[in-house]
Hints:
Largest sheet: 4 strands, mixed
Number of strands: 6
Radius of gyration: 17 Å
Shape: flat
CATH class of the largest domain: Alpha Beta
Strand order of the largest sheet: 2-1-3-4
Distance between the termini: 27 Å
Number of domains: 2
Oligomer: single chain
Number of helices: 5
Bound molecules: glutathione
CATH superfamily of the largest domain: Glutaredoxin
Strand content: 5-15%
Helix content: 40-55%
Structural class: alpha+beta
Amino acid sequence: MTLKLYFAPGACSFVPHALLESAGAPFEPVMVKLHKGEQKEPAFTAINPRAQVPVLVDGDEAITQIAAIVQYLDAKFPEQQFLPRDALARTRVLETLAWMNNTVHPTFTHVFMPFKFAESPEAQAELKSFNAKSYAALLGEIEAMARKAADAGRPFWAATASGRSMPMP
Ligand SMILES: N[C@@H](CCC(=O)N[C@@H](CS)C(=O)NCC(=O)O)C(=O)O
């Protein structure tokens, strides 16, 4: 059964999208136009009631949340070694992935979609400027991580078996 990935251009769904591409696995990419609100249409909420991409569909199963999808793809394509086999190295990748997913990404969302978190224009403006500062600090942390990896001659964060780096959301 062919895997299906519901994705949106420029969205965090690029993480499993890049993994599927690098695995060379046959999969069907299904584009969801977020700017047109397609994620809220019944055809999509029947697949993910939370109205978000990415969704990986394998047979009758619809899997959401990047951290879960990444671990599923790692189990499904073990030869790709998307995640390290060594327990500590694997945990470090998941630690960074969790932080990107639960801290960096939501901070970014507050900057670019403040209307999701407050109603009044004043509250939205404050959310935007406050989170822009937090986001700049987070980018600084990411830059430091990248520099540390480069100095150690390692690929940025996680390497796949093919030598490519695993992208983070
Ligand atoms: N924690 C979720 C985050 C998913 C998420 O925030 N997806 C965004 C795109 S980056 C989305 O679909 N947003 C729909 C919307 O803005 O209405 C995951 O790991 O999958």
